[in-house]
């Protein structure tokens, strides 16, 4: 299939899916389902792109589709489990309050923007899957290694945070367990690392340099838009001075040894 047709089909499909999910969230009263759909959408789009590509080594296409689906199932499954046990994410509660009576109309637009970003973030996988070089070469193994490190790191960070939250003695405290001692957002850091895997898979491919926009855009979104800012705002609201001290001593994103805490 022509690459432009692949992209067009992806946009239409995600637009329809997000429209249906917008109707679902309006009935359910929890807009957080979009976070589940975003990650799963990227994974399914990758499978479609890899399967319908008119060029590219077949082994690499299968590999990229498989890795992307494992990533999306892990991420979307984790968020889905949170939706079943926790109230609506504070980010969406804040948006609804700010938007007032126009909240649902604006949420429809928000969901369509997420559809757009799902396709955009699946493009590195599309480019990598069209790499005509025979698999498996050194850069394929580098890509697998980066992917494995990222998935393991993010899974460990999520597990450590979930264990902390499930401990009744930690109510009102800040998680500093394991990876959270070195970064305030180790889960986001390893999510960003994940996108470098597709840069490796696309090594030498036509337009392969465009895959660099994957980690670049992800870093921007995590640090400036949907990741760190709303998460830290909510943490300051719920944990106050304890989180301010955490901010003072701990790197915001890249893991780094913490500073000494201020004496009480």
Automatic annotation (TrEMBL):
Transmembrane region(s): 7-25, 31-50, 108-126, 138-157, 195-223
PROSITE patterns: S5A_REDUCTASE
GO cellular component, one term: membrane
InterPro entries linked to this entry: UstE-like
Keywords attached to this entry: Membrane, Transmembrane, Transmembrane helix
PANTHER family (UniProt xref): 3-OXO-5-ALPHA-STEROID 4-DEHYDROGENASE (PTHR32251), STEROID 5-ALPHA REDUCTASE C-TERMINAL DOMAIN-CONTAINING PROTEIN (PTHR32251:SF17)
Protein name: 3-oxo-5-alpha-steroid 4-dehydrogenase
């Amino acid at each position: 299939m022509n690459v432009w047709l692949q992209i067009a089909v992806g946009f239409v499909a995600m637009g329809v899916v997000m429209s249906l999910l917008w109707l679902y969230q309006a009935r359910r009263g929890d807009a957080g389902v979009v976070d589940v759909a975003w990650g799963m959408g990227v994974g399914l789009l990758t499978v479609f792109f890899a399967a319908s590509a008119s060029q590219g080594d077949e082994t690499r296409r299968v590999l990229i589709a498989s890795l992307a689906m494992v990533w999306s199932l892990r991420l979307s499954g984790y968020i889905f489990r949170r939706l079943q046990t926790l109230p609506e994410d504070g980010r969406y509660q804040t948006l609804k309050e700010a938007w007032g009576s126009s909240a649902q109309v604006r949420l429809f637009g928000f969901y369509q923007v997420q559809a757009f970003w799902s396709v955009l973030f699946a493009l590195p996988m599309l480019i990598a899957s069209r790499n005509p070089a025979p698999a498996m070469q050194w850069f394929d193994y580098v890509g697998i290694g980066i992917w494995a490190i990222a998935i393991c790191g993010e899974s460990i960070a999520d597990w450590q945070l979930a264990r902390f939250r499930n401990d009744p003695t930690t109510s009102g405290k800040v998680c500093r367990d394991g990876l959270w001692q070195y970064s305030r957002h180790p889960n986001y850091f390893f999510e960003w690392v994940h996108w470098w895997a597709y840069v490796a898979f696309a090594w030498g491919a036509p337009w392969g340099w465009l895959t660099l926009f994957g980690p670049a855009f992800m870093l921007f979104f995590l640090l400036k838009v949907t990741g760190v800012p709303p998460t830290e705002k909510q943490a300051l609201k719920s944990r106050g001075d304890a989180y301010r001290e955490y901010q003072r001593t701990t790197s915001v994103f890249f893991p780094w040894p913490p500073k000494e805490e201020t004496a009480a």
